[in-house]
């Protein structure tokens, strides 16, 4: 069973984050529900001092969609470096000409 304690763990480093209660917000669309902000306090983590939000329902439960985020957003399959290389090339093309202009193959 997943709990708030689990949801408060940083998605990056999985260390428990810090709940900053001062930034709690009521959720208008769902009665009694609120959105709380958690900050990663792990200095070695890329998300250090970066907040993420958790929706907490009035009965203290957390929507399943958020709890299953690891399954919903699986890591990209390892396809070597081709994807990265393509992205790098794309960025180079777009930055070289000063825009995202694509050559017209029809002249
Ligand atoms: Zn972290």
Please tell me about this protein's structure.
The chain has four helices and four strands. Residues 68-73 have low confidence and may be disordered. The N and C termini lie far apart (61 Å). The chain has a domain at 4-73. The protein has helices spanning 4-7, 64-67, 69-72, 82-96, and strands spanning 18-19, 25-26, 34-39, 51-56. The protein is elongated and about 65 Å long. Strands 1, 2, 3 and 4 form a four-stranded antiparallel β-sheet that branches. The structure holds zinc ion (ZN). Zinc ion binds at residues 10, 12-13, 15, 40, 42, 45, 47.
In this structure, how is the largest beta sheet organized?
4 strands, antiparallel
If you compute it from the alpha carbons, what radius of gyration comes out, rounded to the nearest whole angstrom? 20 Å
Q: Could you state the order of secondary-structure elements as H and E? A: HEEEEHHH
Count of strand segments:
4
Strand content: 5-15%
Our count of helices gives 4
* Uncertain residue ranges: 68-73
**Proportion in helices:** 25-40%
Q: What is the overall shape? A: elongated
Structural class: alpha+beta
Average pLDDT, to the nearest integer? 78
Attached small molecules: zinc ion
For the termini, the CA-CA separation is 61 Å
SSE blueprint and pairings:
Elements: H1 4-7, E1 18-19, E2 25-26, E3 34-39, E4 51-56, H2 64-67, H3 69-72, H4 82-96
Antiparallel strand pairs: 1-3, 2-3, 3-4
């Amino acid at each position: 069973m997943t709990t708030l304690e689990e949801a408060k763990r940083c998605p990056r480093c999985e260390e428990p984050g810090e709940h900053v209660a001062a930034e709690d917000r009521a959720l208008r669309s769902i009665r009694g529900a609120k959105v709380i902000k958690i900050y990663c306090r792990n200095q070695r983590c890329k998300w250090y001092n970066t907040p993420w939000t958790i929706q907490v329902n009035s009965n203290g439960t957390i929507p399943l969609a958020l709890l299953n985020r690891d399954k919903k957003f699986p890591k990209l399959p390892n396809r070597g470096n081709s994807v990265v290389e393509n992205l790098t090339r794309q960025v180079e093309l777009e930055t070289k000409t000063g825009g995202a202009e694509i050559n017209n193959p029809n002249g």
